[in-house]
From TrEMBL:
Domain of life: Bacteria
Organism listed in the record: Metapseudomonas resinovorans
Binding site residues for Mg(2+): T42
Chain positions recorded as S-adenosyl-L-methionine binding sites: Y39, C40, D41, G74
Radical SAM core domain sequence ranges: 20-211
InterPro entries (UniProt xref): 7-CO-7-deazaguanine_synth-like (IPR024924), Aldolase_TIM (IPR013785), rSAM (IPR007197), rSAM_QueE_gams (IPR027621), rSAM_sf (IPR058240)
Protein name: 7-carboxy-7-deazaguanine synthase
Residue stretches in coiled coil: none
SUPFAM superfamilies reported in the protein's UniProt record: Radical SAM enzymes
Molecular function in Gene Ontology: lyase activity
Recorded catalytic activity of this chain's protein: 6-carboxy-5,6,7,8-tetrahydropterin + H(+) = 7-carboxy-7-carbaguanine + NH4(+)
Residues binding [4Fe-4S] cluster, per UniProt: C33, C37, C40
């Protein structure tokens, strides 16, 4: 039987986050997520979707002639066949990233893939789902993201940054203000005041397209 994945959408846009922000990227959004973060902006990917064979996904992606691919969700690792998809995308010569909640095991992800691993803050309402064992699998090719909902979240994130030496384990540590909960300027001021080895991340797609689906 052909390997399949349930797909919510495949589209071509600018990457709005991470270290490739602003670069034209094909997004492969998988359906389903076991988490319910209070700030989630992709709840439409929790259910539904279309069952697609991996060959069909690769063919659709190739039609855009992209350089960069982002596999996202939902939570893409909730579907086991995400792992062979990542490998096949790398084998095809693309620069591949995966956006994951950090709640599921990342150890089987192809090392050529840049893992963008969330550490869920208390303000996310899912802090108890963090799988800290994933930190041991981080490399300089990977990125750790904190979505900051409050000053308390910021202080918590700083404590995890220090405890796990995340700036030494991963290539990037990203602090992102939760939309309409923390101002980007306040977060920028906190980062500068504490001289943190992190990158302030703003969501380019929200600035350009007001978070419309398909961007």
């Amino acid at each position: 039987m052909h390997q399949t994945l349930r797909i919510t959408e495949i589209f071509y846009s600018l990457q709005g986050e991470t270290r490739t922000a602003g670069l034209p990227t094909v997004f492969v959004r998988l359906t389903g997520c076991p988490l319910r973060c209070q700030y989630c902006d992709t709840a439409y990917a929790f259910s539904g979707g279309e069952l697609m064979a991996l060959d069909a996904i690769l063919e659709r992606v190739a039609g855009y002639k992209p350089r960069y691919i982002c596999v996202t969700g939902g939570e893409p690792l909730a579907q086991p066949n995400c792992i062979p998809l990542l490998q096949r995308l790398c084998d095809a010569g693309y620069e591949v990233s995966i956006e994951t909640s950090g709640a599921l095991d990342v150890s089987a992800v192809d090392p050529r893939v840049s893992k963008v691993v969330d550490l869920k803050t208390p303000g996310s309402a899912e802090v108890g789902r963090n799988r800290y064992e994933n930190i041991a699998h981080l490399t300089a090719n990977d990125q750790v993201k904190f979505v900051i909902c409050s000053r308390e979240d910021y202080d918590w994130a700083v404590s995890k940054l220090i405890e796990y030496r995340l700036d030494q384990r991963a290539g990037e540590v990203l602090f992102s203000p939760s939309h309409k909960q923390v101002s980007a300027r306040d977060l920028a001021d906190w980062i500068v005041a504490d001289n943190l080895p992190v990158r302030l991340q703003l969501q380019l797609h929200k600035i350009l397209w007001n978070d419309e689906p398909g961007h």
